[in-house]
Amino acid sequence: MEHQQPELVSEDGAPTAFYPGFEVYNVNHYDVFRNPAEARDLLLDALEVQRLAPGHLFDGEKDGRLVKIMPVNRIATRADLNELVHGFDYKAFERRRAENPRSPVEKITLVCMGTKLA
C-alpha cells in the first residue's frame, strides 16, 4: 500500500490545508546583542511592539498577541521557558477555554535566539 501525501494546493493554486507554525526572522548583526537590556529595547522597537507595564510576565503586545523577548545573548532553552510556565494564571486559562473551547486561549509570540537547522 502506497502512502499518499495530502494535496496542500488545489488546482486553482489556492491552499487547501493550513498549518500553524513558526515565523523566523534572521538578524545577522550580532554585535547589538552584547547588552541584553539594549537588545531587548531594540527588538521591541524594531518589531513595533506596544510595551506593557514593568513587572508584567510579557514584554508587550502586538496585533492581539502577547510578546515575550527571551534572553538574546544565547540560544533559548527549555529552562528559559520556566518563567513563563510558572507565571501563567492557569485558572484564568481554564475559564477562557471553557467559554470558547474552539478558539485559542492566548496568542503568544516568543522572540529568541536560535540555531540554523541542518
In short:
With 118 residues, the protein is α+β, with helices and mostly antiparallel strands. The protein has 3 helices and 4 strands. The longest helix has 11 residues, at 36-46.
Structure report:
This protein is an alpha+beta fold. Helix content is 23%, strand content 12%. It has a domain at 30-111. The protein has three helices and four strands, in the order αβββααβ. A four-stranded mixed β-sheet has the order 1-2-3-4. It starts with 35 loop residues before the first helix and ends in a 7-residue tail after the last strand.
Topology:
Layout: H1 36-46, E1 50-51, E2 60-62, E3 65-69, H2 82-87, H3 90-99, E4 108-111
Parallel strand pairs: 3-4
Antiparallel strand pairs: 1-2, 2-3
**What is the strand content?**
5-15%
Low-confidence stretches: 1-5
**How many angstroms does the end-to-end distance come to?**
31 Å
| Class of secondary structure makeup | alpha+beta
Helix fraction, binned, reads 10-25%
**Number of helical regions:** 3
The string of secondary-structure elements, in order, is HEEEHHE
Major sheet summary line: 4 strands, mixed
Question: How would you sum up the global shape?
Answer: globular
Number of strands: 4
Mean pLDDT figure: 78
Q: Order of strands side by side in the largest beta sheet?
A: 1-2-3-4
Alpha-carbon Rg, integer: 18 Å
